[in-house]
Amino acid sequence: HPGYEERMRLMKFPKSARLLKSSDFDRVMKQRQSASDGFVVMYAAPNEVGTTRLGLIVSRKCGNAVLRNSWKRGIREAFRLTYDELPIGYDLVLLPRRSAAPIVSKLKSSLPTLANRLEKRFAEKKPQDAVDRR
Known about the structure:
By secondary structure, the chain is of the alpha+beta class. It is 47% helix and 16% strand.
């Protein structure tokens, strides 16, 4: 994972750690592998950037503006605090569950668990793809 300077830069959650373009979101949703728990649904896809990036989809179904913003802040904070535990080179898109509340401590345990589960699925999928191409 990144050195000290990179970690300090990520403490601020820079644009380089975010999914901003709709084409990036579309790519993740097209290749999507998903994992979920009681708090969030996570979609993931490998990227060519070499860092892990986060995208959020928080619809009005999650609640009013105050609750939606609380979700966004909570997920960003959990991502920032658990960045070193996440697999490298993936774009992650998170959708909060309607029935859950945005509790940062729960999200901090949820994000690495879901991301590592998805990384294993991509690792299992790669050898099979190589066999299919022959």
